[in-house]
Amino acid sequence: MKAFDYQRPETIAEAIKAASKPGASYYAGGTNLLDLMKVGVRTPDSLIDITRLDDLKRIEPQKDGSLRIGALVRNSDLARNVDILSDYPAIAEALLSGASGQLRNSATVGGNLMQQPRCAYFYDPHSACNLHEVGEGCDALEGENGKHAVLGWTKTCIAVHPSDFCVPLAAMGARVVVDGPDGSREISIDEFYTLPGSVQPPGSALKQGEIITAIILPSDAKRFAPRARYIKLRDRTSYAFAIVSAAAMLHIGDGRIKDARIALGGVAANPWRAREAEDTLNGAEANEASFKKAADAALADAKPSGDNAHKIELARRILVRALKAAADGTPPKMPDLPGSVFAVGKEAR
Amino acid sequence: MKDTTLRINGEERKLSADTRTTLLDALRNHLGLTGSKKGCDHGQCGACTVMVNGRRINSCLTLACMHDGDEITTVEGLGEPGNLSPLQAAFVKHDGFQCGYCTPGQICSATAMLEEIKDNWPSNVSGSLTGEAKLTPEEISERMSGNLCRCAAYPNIVDAIREAAEASS
């Protein structure tokens, strides 16, 4: 690992000043950044440890009904927060489906947004990867690419965004609050991620020195709380990244869908908001035919980027499943893990 | 180099180390506490699990210098020969290991995990997001999924955790 200078500022202003120097990087949970530093893909000159900035550790309901989540809230704390559980249950479901108990205790909300792709070629400094340096090329195109993107990719990069948490954030149109040398601003979750055609890894929306201070969950997303789900498919029953996942949120009245929000995970370089699919559901009956139509719309432009054509059908099916589950209502009971060996005969052991 | 003061297993320990030193390497190579194990060094196996201020984390994925003033508990702080913690004793009784390499991490993780259940933290298999967290085998498996055991002693690990939890409740 390359040597670095370590600083632990006491205030946000001090942190911004320190991180404004080229080569400086913020550091919070570190579960992704330190890992990338160990393999030599990230080589910051200085680390600005922000874990003592207590102002960023609060979860605060706002006057306009939205919920402000400080960037340093740990995943495990957010997943058991009473406001999240009652108003935004798909967020808790997504967080609890991600990583392990240990990692959820370290990882922060802001860091989750900054997660880098888990593509093996990105992780290897000796492989060609346009995210290392523009123009290097992409070894994933001819390599192990069964888990790679099926939507929105170009030959520049076919990696997927690994986060679970960001999928319901995208579905509900969350906003990211940043502070920096030029002051504070808000970025929509859509703008926060750019697609790989522009060769920009997660975090590129931030200028040098800018820090994520909070995520805002909009108040209008609360109406989905009775019918909001996040469902994830993975290679093993726990502690694995999504092969595909879906967040589905429905607002149903008089037997018709009045509003729908859909996002897919594990399919693209960003948490993939499927607006075309949402449009097919507005005014439709909440039944399997409608959900299949929506899933077809969501995946209409999907194409394999390698040995991963199966992900297109998997994404279709997981979306139908998530929509059905959402229509059935957010249960007091959490789901069995898809494909779990514990799903049948739970008490049989 | 950076000076850091850690409180490890109730004892104040001073460390002067390169900023790149992970908490795991500090424990093992600088402070002589070799109970915590290095498996993957990438946060994937859980062998390095320790508790920081009561919470379980992967000590390989955190820098020692970040933990100035923090309270660290390693497997050495949970019990010792002749005075085992209830979980340590249950692991022995149920043969919750084969080679034993993952065991310190399993025991630190389980110790903190049982506190999480007492505090009603939900999991991905919980019967309810807001109800009482229960200690079923599936809950133990899900909550312990960050600790791998290549000898696959999982059934015995689950039995050991269950017995220790029931004994303490």
- Tally the beta strands of chain A: 12
Rg of chain B (C-alpha, Å): 16 Å
The overall pLDDT average of chain A reads: 93
Oligomer: heterodimer
Annotation field: number of helices of chain A: 12
The portion of residues assigned to helices of chain A is: 25-40%
Mean pLDDT of chain B: 95
CATH superfamily of the largest domain in chain B: [2Fe-2S]-binding domain
Low-confidence stretches of chain B: none
**Number of domain modules of chain B:** 2
List the helices and strands of chain A in order.
Answer: EHEHEEEHHHHHHEEHEEEEEHHH
| Poorly predicted residue ranges of chain A | 335-349
Per CATH, the class of the largest domain in chain A reads Alpha Beta
What's the end-to-end separation of chain A, in Å? Answer: 46 Å
> How many independent structural domains of chain A?
3
Which architecture of the largest domain in chain B does the CATH hierarchy give at level 2?
A: Orthogonal Bundle
Q: What's the quick description here?
A:
The complex is a heterodimer of chains A (349) and B (169). With 349 residues, chain A is an alpha+beta fold.
Word description of this protein:
The complex is a heterodimer of chains A (349) and B (169). Chain A is built from twelve helices and twelve strands. Chain A has 349 residues and is an alpha+beta fold. In chain A, helix 2 links the parallel strand 2 (24-27) and strand 3. Mean pLDDT of chain A is 93; it is low at 335-349. Chain B has two domains: 2-77, Ubiquitin-like (UB roll) (Roll), CATH 3.10.20.30; 86-168, Orthogonal Bundle (DNA polymerase, domain 1), CATH 1.10.150.120. Chain B is 33% helix and 15% strand. Chain B has helices at 23-30, 86-94, 103-118, 137-143, 154-168, and strands at 2-8, 11-17, 49-52, 55-58, 71-73. In chain B, a hairpin with a 2-residue loop joins strand 3 and strand 4 (55-58). In chain B, helix 2 (86-94) packs across helix 5 (154-168). Chain B is globular. The mean pLDDT of chain B is 95. Chains A and B meet through helix 2, helix 4, helix 5 and helix 6 of A and strand 4, helix 3 and helix 4 of B.
